């Protein structure tokens, strides 16, 4: 009889460790498979802003399974059917956008967890193939993160973090800046202050904070208590490509 797959991110966070999320255009199973040896704990599968749909999720998450990486699908809406169908077709975790109130956070829990915690629609799903009593084990292995990406969410965060069974409260600076009337200005002092206020509220409550980072900001956010860090691979591609092409240009000159 098959055993339920360990959720690497949940396991690391429960041990008090830092967990990593590789972001970017991860819309091909071959790309995800090739990223496996890099050693990231989880991969973001973009179902909010990208081309990924329900029919794509099974093979994308299988590619994650090959390397023991947690598959995290960012859904496009906080609706039960969307969330639990995403889990049914193979995701080990979901990231739900624009959670602005305690009630909205509770709705995420309701959709991601089976009874007695929530009311996720009954189905073994792909992660449950061959697993005895999957529905009685799934709650402990499903990774749930919500996005704090509006200034109203920062203002309501002290209430939002009281909702149990959410693994990570992830602060997203891009949408946060837009909600503050500072579109595209993620480095604006007011945006940075709001991000820091959000992280402090999460960490001080004893919950786990997540954050989008770069090579230059990761140390700062880890020092502030963030334990789930997401980084896009596109930045490294751009940097490496520029370095290579600049080297070619200098030699040609």
Largest sheet: 8 strands, parallel, barrel
Tally of separate domains: 1
Radius of gyration over all CA atoms, rounded: 19 Å
Name of the top-level CATH class: Alpha Beta
User: Can you count the helices?
Assistant: 11
Strand content: 15-25%
The helical percent reads 40-55%
Shape: globular
Order of helical and strand elements: HEHEHEHEHHEHEHHEHEH
What is the third-level CATH name, the topology? TIM Barrel
End-to-end CA span:
65 Å
As laid out across the biggest beta sheet, the strand order is 1-2-3-4-5-6-7-8
CATH-level-4 superfamily name: Phosphoenolpyruvate-binding domains
Give a short summary of the structure:
The protein has 253 residues and is α/β, with parallel strands linked by helices. The protein has helices at residues 8-14, 29-35, 57-67, 80-88, 102-112, 134-137, 151-160, 173-179, 189-204, 218-223, 234-252; strands at residues 19-23, 42-46, 70-74, 93-96, 143-148, 168-171, 209-212, 228-232.
Task: Summarize the SSE layout with pairings.
Elements: H1 8-14, E1 19-23, H2 29-35, E2 42-46, H3 57-67, E3 70-74, H4 80-88, E4 93-96, H5 102-112, H6 134-137, E5 143-148, H7 151-160, E6 168-171, H8 173-179, H9 189-204, E7 209-212, H10 218-223, E8 228-232, H11 234-252
Parallel strand pairs: 1-2, 1-8, 2-3, 3-4, 4-5, 5-6, 6-7, 7-8
Helix pairs in contact: 2-3, 4-5, 7-9
């Amino acid at each position: 009889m098959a055993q339920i797959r360990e959720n690497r991110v949940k396991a690391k966070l429960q041990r008090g460790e830092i967990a990593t999320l590789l972001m970017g255009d991860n819309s091909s199973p071959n790309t995800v498979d090739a990223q496996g040896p890099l050693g990231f704990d989880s991969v973001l599968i973009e179902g909010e802003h990208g081309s990924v749909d329900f029919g794509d999720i099974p093979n994308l998450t299988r590619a994650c399974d090959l390397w023991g990486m947690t598959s995290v699908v960012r859904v496009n809406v906080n609706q039960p059917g969307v969330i639990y169908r995403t889990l049914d077709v193979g995701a080990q975790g979901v990231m739900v956008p624009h959670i602005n109130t305690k009630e909205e956070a509770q709705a995420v829990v309701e959709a991601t967890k089976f009874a007695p915690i929530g009311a996720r629609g009954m189905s073994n799903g792909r992660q449950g193939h061959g697993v005895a009593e999957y529905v009685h084990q799934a709650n402990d292995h499903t990774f749930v993160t919500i996005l704090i990406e509006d200034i109203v969410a920062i203002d309501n965060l002290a209430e939002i973090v009281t909702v149990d069974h959410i693994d990570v409260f992830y602060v997203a600076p891009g949408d946060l800046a837009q909600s503050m009337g500072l579109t595209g200005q993620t480095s604006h002092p007011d945006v940075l202050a709001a991000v820091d206020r959000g992280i402090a509220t999460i960490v001080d409550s004893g919950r786990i904070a997540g954050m989008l980072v770069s090579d230059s900001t990761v140390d700062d956010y880890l020092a502030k208590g963030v334990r789930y860090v997401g980084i896009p691979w596109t930045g490294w591609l751009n940097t490496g490509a520029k370095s290579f092409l600049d080297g070619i240009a200098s030699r040609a000159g």
